[in-house]
Amino acid sequence: MNNFTFQNPVKLIFGKGSIARLAREIPADSRLMITFGGGSVKQNGIYDQVVAALAGREFIEFWGIEPNPKIETLRKAIALGREHKVDFLLAVGGGSVLDGTKLIAAGIPYEGDPWELVLDDRKIGRVVPFADVMTLPATGSEMNAGAVISNLATQEKFAFHHSFPRFSILDPEATFSLPPFQIACGIADTFVHVMEQYMTVAGCSPLMDRWAEGILRTLVEIAPKIRENPHDYDRMADYMLCATMGLNGFIAMGVPQDWATHMIGHELTALHGTTHGQTLAVVLPALLTVMQEQKGEKLLQYGDRVFGIREGSSEERIERTIRATEEFFRSLGLATRLHELGIGAETIDEIVRRFDERGTRLGEQGNITGEVTRRILERCK
Ligand code: NZQ
Ligand code: ZN
Question: How close is the Cα of 248 to the center of ligand 2, in Å?
Fold first, then answer.
């Protein structure tokens, strides 16, 4: 096991009715700005619950943080926050609203252009405290310090890290209005977060392995039930908790991490606007195929413990395991090939060009170069 430091200060407030707790959690004298996406919270009643919970409080609202939040939009939110001397932020929405709010929180006190903070998070100084009401289980953003921001002008999408939410309110009933495609992408995103931290080297930590396998197995078990009935409170609660536990540091203690699927996926989103979870469903099976020698022992363990694949030679089991992974994504209703998304050879060339230019080396061994990325993307054409 590698050395590690672990600290996660997020207060999780979980369960139906928990939005009513807002007034107690946000300091009474705060100059509060609430941030939102495109309006789903007005349709499903979450906005009304937030306003009711904060009755008698003053706050300003910023609307329009889009999926894959854009720096162009966030600059406007930062200007509004500064104008009103905001000293507490509440994100109400999915991972994009919360990620955008993490940048607003760092950007309000920062004197330069906030994109500089995305490119180099060591420049982040003071951060306005922030919290969230999460409406889409997927990113784990509610219990981690990361955020991913896009730049329309340069067609780039990068992650940065700074501070954690003060608290996160997770009410599974808030997810009942999610469209099936967003649920599918959220389950795929959660699955791949776990895989990025698990599918590396065998034998590092049996405890981390079993925690990770527990989340993967739970997702495989609940996905068809959720597809059948997305208003099943207990299953949506499990899904929500899987998403949080998938990327809050708990399964990452002392183990190597990969993240190549995410980095390649971010390029697909930057160039085509493809939904995050959908990009991962395309890239992961191809990455496992190309990297199967390096990841072989772990693939055999994963096949056995998550999909019950135990018969046949190692090669056969690995092949079946990768197929089972792709079939799982397809069972969610997602595409697993680039051509299904209308993405072709020029995009592959452009991603390889970018990785070569940046000197990108991904994966737990830092050996996924531009050329290896080409093999991965050719594989999922
Ligand atoms: O904007 P509104 O109208 O609210 O609609 C959203 C949006 O259109 C809608 N939605 C959210 N909750 C809903 C709902 N519709 C109905 N009912 C609800 N309860 O869903 C759409 C997608 O929302 P978005 O926030 O973009 O989805 P998600 O939570 O999957 O976030 C994706 C972003 O997070 C980043 C991704 O790269 C992407 O930019 N990630 C952030 C991570 C992190 N902070 O740690 C890690 C992840 O790997 C990921 O990269
Ligand atoms: Zn993700």
Answer: 12
- What pLDDT, on the 0 to 100 scale, is given for residue 201? 97
Residues paired with 35 in a beta bridge: 62, 91
Q: Which two tokens stand for residue 282?
A: 């395309």
Ligand 2: centre distance to CA 262 (Å): 6
What pLDDT was estimated at residue 113? 98
Task: Report residues whose beta carbon is within 6 angstroms of any ligand 1 atom.
Answer: 37-41, 44, 67-68, 93-97, 99, 135-136, 138-141, 144, 146-148, 174-175, 177-178, 182, 186, 189, 247, 262, 276
Amino acid at position 213, single letter: E
Q: Rounded CA gap, 153 and 68, in Å?
A: 14
Residues 286 and 377: beta-carbon distance below 8 Å: yes
Q: Are 92 and 135 in contact (CB under 8 A)?
A: yes
The structure tokens 């999460």 sit at 134
Q: Residue 18: what residue type? A: S
261 Cα–ligand 2 center, Å: 9
Question: Mean per-residue pLDDT for 17-30?
Answer: 97
The residue contributing the CA closest to ligand 1 atom 49 is 139
Contacting residues for 316 by C-beta, under 8 A, at least 6 apart:
none
CA of 210 to the centre of ligand 1 (A): 28
Atom of ligand 1 nearest to the CA of 186: 30
What domains sit in the chain, N to C, each tagged with a CATH number? 11-175 (3.40.50.1970), 180-379 (1.20.1090.10)
Q: What is the mean pLDDT of the chain?
A: 98
